[in-house]
Specification:
Elements: E1 4-7, H1 17-29, H2 37-46, H3 60-79, H4 88-95, E2 100-104, H5 109-116, E3 127-129, H6 142-150, E4 158-162, H7 165-173, E5 177-180, E6 196-197, H8 204-211
Parallel strand pairs: 1-2, 1-4, 2-3, 4-5, 5-6
């Protein structure tokens, strides 16, 4: 069996991507820009780019003001509580104590902490890398390369679980095998970089057992 499983957070462990979309949608609407689910998926989940690129006025001061408002709104939505993705707890219980597990997320640490204050998932994990812990965001491989470097892992030791195109590209570029579990928002992506595409997090157990 693999020595380590590296998990993305948003959309894989917790159902937060819809809330991030909602926060961005509300803030962009104040500027007369309608952010659709498809636009969000393509810009954020596939390309890893900012939804504020859709603003006709690319004034840096305005964008920073809107970014702060979006982040504050997202924090408020997260504080209301988030859903753990179906099948996650059972899957983590299966692997806990058998393999090393870490979270490699693009979330800021403050947002991550708000989410997991109520999920009871963190005891399953040996380490967490949040956005502040590495230089280049996904789809750059930096996050996964740093996770391996910090924890003495080689690509052949690891399996990654991701839900988005940009996450799969990042992990594959780091030389890692990726199990993709697309959701309602991320399903529009190109998952050709994934080792396998799964229908549910529940299927991760069988696939990792097959890898030996």
């Amino acid at each position: 069996m693999s020595r380590a499983i590296l998990w993305d957070n948003d959309g894989v462990l917790v159902d937060t991507e819809g809330l991030y979309f909602q926060a961005g949608h509300e803030v962009l609407a104040t500027q007369g820009v309608e952010l659709t689910h498809r636009d969000f998926a393509e810009q954020s989940l596939q390309k890893g780019l900012s939804v504020f690129d859709f603003l006709p006025d690319q004034n840096a001061e305005l964008i920073e003001e809107l970014r702060l408002k979006r982040n504050a709104r997202y924090s408020a939505l997260l504080a209301e509580g988030v859903q753990v993705v179906d099948g996650v707890i059972e899957t983590l219980e299966t692997f806990h104590g058998r393999v090393q597990m870490g979270i490699v997320t693009g979330s800021r640490r403050d947002h991550f902490d708000i989410v997991h204050a109520k999920t009871d998932l963190l005891p399953f994990f040996d380490f967490v890398l949040a956005r502040e812990d590495y230089e280049e965001a996904k789809p750059h491989p930096d996050a996964y390369l740093k996770a391996m470097r910090l924890h003495g892992l080689q690509p052949d030791d690891c399996v990654v679980v991701e839900d988005s195109e940009r996450g799969c590209v990042a992990a594959a570029a780091a030389g890692l095998r990726v199990l993709a579990v697309p959701n309602a928002l991320s399903k529009y992506g190109d998952f050709s970089s994934a080792y396998k595409i799964l229908n549910s997090v529940r299927d991760v157990v069988e696939e990792i057992e097959k890898l030996g």
